[in-house]
Amino acid sequence: MIFRQLFDSESSTYTYLLADEHTREALLIDPVREQVERDLNLLKELELKLTYVLDTHVHADHVTAAGLLRQRTGARAVASHKGAPCVDVKVRHGDVLQMGEVKVEVLETPGHTDDSVSFRVGKRVFTGDALLVRSAGRTDFQNGNAGQLFDSITGVLFRLPDDTEVYPGHDYKGHTQSSIAEEKRYNARAANREREAFVQLMGNLNLPPPKKLKEAVPANLACGVISPTQTSSPQA
Amino acid sequence: MIFRQLFDSESSTYTYLLADEHTREALLIDPVREQVERDLNLLKELELKLTYVLDTHVHADHVTAAGLLRQRTGARAVASHKGAPCVDVKVRHGDVLQMGEVKVEVLETPGHTDDSVSFRVGKRVFTGDALLVRSAGRTDFQNGNAGQLFDSITGVLFRLPDDTEVYPGHDYKGHTQSSIAEEKRYNARAANREREAFVQLMGNLNLPPPKKLKEAVPANLACGVISPTQTSSPQA
Question: Whose C-alpha in A33, B17, B70, B197 is 20 to 30 A from the C-alpha of B150?
Fold first, then answer.
């Protein structure tokens, strides 16, 4: 399998490219609209055909490239059945997406948002904002729910094998990956904490709203193909 | 082998952690002084003992953490015999550093600076600024020499097996790795270009001096343990 981790420095978002090296089919997880040319160029150089674009959830901090990539390549957009209505393939817990020899298992991991999913591929899991390196996504908007996030982290992700490699949706300190074993021991929000204490902690973070919340969410509900200005008036 | 890629967003520097999972010995390649606490904390969490700190060259854009890490852990600093006099182990082309089952082969790849080396570990090569993703380090200071860099890239690095994974010292567009095959085909500076044309291209880049040149170079010649202010007067 071909695997590449890509970074968008403005939003600190990680995008992942996975491909079957024989069939040359590829998928992107959480591509960022501003990076669409970089990502299309890399696909071309690696002689890959984009088959799927997966979003882990409706993002509030950046606009997805899913819609643009669908227009440019014919790829199908994939996300949770609880998320953006614009996607082509609406997935549920336990669904499997097969692309050549690349097998993607869908794990519903709500709590950061109600539509959050993780994607497990072999020994790797792509956790979006449900589980970050030593952290976890905030739960104070977009139907976030701290109790639900605790259940997703401890009941779904922490039950994966210890040596599962964790690839997060973001990182702000320069980490690129972690493992389930490490997060069970060292996650600053969820490790060694009871559900109630986690809910209390997440309720007291007092973070400012994400800068792009009002433009990113409506844009992402349309797979990123309407401009922020078109969507900002109904929000105002 | 344990492998981690780490990023310093201020200088866009990649630091690499490699460790033998049985002996728990670890080495860091190109650690950044501002990230010393992050890196020490990661070593502690992973229950690793830092044995070596390797620098690919005397950097001009950030200060190495080598000296601080040596003070804090007893690790030995490693770099080219042509580079910083402060290091403990001065290496040459073909030298091998063995750490448990981790075998590091030294490749002299001068041209960005006269002391630039790459480190080959199994199917990975850590190229510092000699070879970047689709690019190559500038050659207009610190005894840089474009002809020499061309010879290092095409005569040393491009002779590695095509599927060798390339891990650069920096990236400014969000790429985290490449391969020798890709760089042979797509490197914007060195691929499909004759030596003379490469020298001409590198001579016409007209880049401003690195912001930290005057403080970073003297600090790095002392493994980063003298403060920039102490070193700035003799430079002025």
Answer: B17
HSE on the CB side for A181, CA within 13 Å? 9
- Paired residues of A17 in beta bridges: A4, A28
Characterise A195 by phi-psi region: left (phi > 0), alpha (psi -120 to 50), beta (else): alpha
| pTM for the structure as a whole | 0.95
Per-residue model confidence as pLDDT tens digits over A155-175: 999 999 999 999 999 999 999
Cross-chain Cβ contact A173/B4 below 8 Å: no
- CA torsion B87→B89→B92→B94, rounded to 10°? -140
Contact flag B4-A38 (C-beta cutoff 8 Å): no
Is-contact A35 A69, C-beta < 8 A?
A: no
Chain B residues with CB within 8 Å of chain A CB: 4-9, 15, 35, 38, 42, 45-46, 173-177, 182, 185-186
Give the C-alpha separation, B9 to B7, whole Å: 6
Interface contacts (A, B; CB < 8 Å): 46
Residues of A in contact with B35 (CB under 8 A): 174
CB-side neighbour CA atoms (13 Å) of B200: 5
Do the beta carbons of residue A198 and residue A209 sit within 8 Å?
A: no
Q: Which helix (H) or strand (E) holds B106?
A: strand B102-108
Concerning whether A81 is annotated as a catalytic residue, the answer is: no
What's the gap in Å between the CA of B38 and the closest CA on chain A?
A: 8
Largest CA distance in chain A: 50
Residues in B touching A8 (Cβ below 8 Å): 174
Q: What are phi and psi of B134, to 5 degrees?
A: 65, 15
Q: How far apart are CA A222 and CA A30, in angstroms?
A: 15
**What ipTM goes with this model?**
0.93
What does the block give as tokens for A30? 């959480």
CA distance A28 to A35: 12
Residues of B serving a catalytic function are 57, 59, 61-62, 112, 129, 170
Tell me the sheet residues that pair with B168.
B128
Tell me if B176 and A5 make a contact (CB, 8 A cut-off): yes
Interface test with A, best of B2, B5, B7 (most A CBs within 10 A): B7
Give the DSSP letter of residue B116.
-
For a pLDDT cut of 70, what percent of chain B falls above it? 96
**Is A62 assigned a catalytic role?**
yes
Q: Closest chain A residue to B34 measured between Cα atoms?
A: A173
pLDDT in tens, A188-201: 999 999 999 999 99
If DSSP codes are grouped into helix, strand and coil, which group holds residue A50? strand
